Amino acid sequence: MSTRFNYDRLVELYAQYDMTPTASEVQGMLTGLIATGSDAKSNELMILMSDLAYDGQGLPVELENLLQQQAEEIEHSLGDEDLGYRLLLPEDTTPLSDRLSALAGWVNAFLVGYGVNQENMTNLSGDLKEAIEDMVELAKIEFTDDGDEEEERAYTEIVEYLRVSAMMCYAELGRNELPANQPPKILH
Asked: pTM for this one?
């Protein structure tokens, strides 16, 4: 994801606000919400993030602005024709165990965001249904780190699979542009 924020910088910024989720988890949650239809520019998204990531407390203005910017970048990159979406994870120089932990957090948080907007999987394409089922299985795995080349390769393949799955989810379920003459639906 071409972003002005990197993993380490977001870790620092979120720590200033005592956020419970990690930077990877916040991105996973935002991605799951946006990929299933939440509008990145909506107040509803920030209310959801307050509930899910900030213990239901009101978001400080600076944190809300930061989350809003991140949400808009995620939405843009998920729909990018150049496939620009990237998972927000620690750098490759970080020990594999830390990267695996962040990856597990991203998957679990994506599924939380996904679950907010998707009640069932009956209308999903076969490919997306399989990807979501794979994510559920990945969320159950306790990753181990032997630090060998094979595990590095597996990590890279899983990250790429999740990246493509998130973009596929957005393409299938994400916010669709309404025709100019059709007002948006209000859900209450």
From this structure: 0.88
